[in-house]
Amino acid sequence: MAASAETEITDLTPNDHACLTFGEPEELMDLTAAFVRDGLVGGLKVIWLGDATPAQAMAELARRGIAAEAAVASGQMTAAGWEGSLLSGQVFEAEQAMAWLAGQVTACRGEGFPGLRVAVDMGWALRPVTGIEQLPRFEESIAAALAGTTVSVLCQYDREQFDAVTLASVAAFHTRSVAAATYHADAMLRICRQYAPPGLRLAGQIDYQAEAPLALGLSEAIRLDGDITINMTDLTFIDASCARLIAGAVRGLEGSRTVVLQCHPAIAARFGLLGAADLTGVSLVIAHDR
């Protein structure tokens, strides 16, 4: 058994034009946060375009251990909406959007940053926008504009909302296809890598039938990352065998690395009975609906 992922978010390089597909908001925020984090750590300028307000974007980053306020204050990072960059009211024009991007590249150079990262939630294209037929031309223009630069653009598409024809029409213009490394995915359960903070994320309901992918995900998180977070905030049920599997993996790390178990009260109680909260270096964090 192997995890499925074409390119992981942490593998992106300068002048990549990457297409990220996601299936739920938490997955989008996790991958975007990793893209932002790695850009800031590398000294790059970072722009995040989406439907979140700047305050909401900062809160999402902070929830994942990324303090970006200083970067915003210094001009290294900007979080903004689509208006004035990709959209003018309810109108999209590929040339105008490309002029905005070119202006950001020029400004980045003038400010002395070694490169630029732009994360763009393409959810605006699901709205009643005039000019949406120009989307493939916009993606093609981005690909041409990035050649020979130190600019990378991450275009984010909700695979549950965009139709297959649209996704196929823009796929050819991207150099990379990005998704979370996934160990199990069906209508009841999703197990995938978490990137910010590093670890593993479980959503849905899990029982003994998913022990194998769970064990693989745990082993890879332990092998690839230092301190890890096992995010179970979107998990509504876990049986005793899977809870013991997680507790056993955590117990093997006791004292050498820190582990955070995030889950709702009922699931936290199960880990409490297994003694996970009493282990050195382990934090049992109670999550509440956001």
Shape: elongated
Q: What is the strand tally? A: 14
Secondary-structure element string = EHEHHEEEHEHEHEEEEHEHEHE
Report, as a whole number of angstroms, the end-to-end distance: 34 Å
- State the low-pLDDT regions, or none: none
| Overall residue-averaged pLDDT value | 93
Helix content: 25-40%
Strand content: 25-35%
Identify the strand order in the major beta sheet.
Answer: 3-2-6-7-1-8
Structural class: alpha/beta
Work out the helix count: 9
Described by strand count, sense and barrel closure, the largest sheet is: 6 strands, parallel
C-alpha Rg, in Å? 20 Å
Q: Nutshell version of this structure?
A:
With 290 residues, this protein is α/β, with parallel strands linked by helices. The protein has helices at residues 25-41, 54-63, 69-74, 94-110, 135-146, 164-171, 211-224, 240-251, 265-273; strands spanning 17-22, 45-49, 77-80, 87-88, 91-92, 116-121, 151-158, 176-178, 182-185, 189-195, 198-206, 228-238, 259-263, 282-286.
List key phrases describing it.
alpha/beta; six-stranded mixed β-sheet; 290 residues
Notes on the protein architecture:
With 290 residues, the chain is an alpha/beta fold. Helix content is 36%, strand content 27%. It is built from nine helices and 14 strands. The chain has helices at residues 25-41, 54-63, 69-74, 94-110, 135-146, 164-171, 211-224, 240-251, 265-273; strands spanning 17-22, 45-49, 77-80, 87-88, 91-92, 116-121, 151-158, 176-178, 182-185, 189-195, 198-206, 228-238, 259-263, 282-286. The protein has a six-stranded parallel beta sheet, with helices on both faces. Helix 4 runs parallel beside helix 5 (135-146) and helix 7 packs parallel to helix 8. The radius of gyration is 20 Å and the shape is elongated. The mean pLDDT is 93.
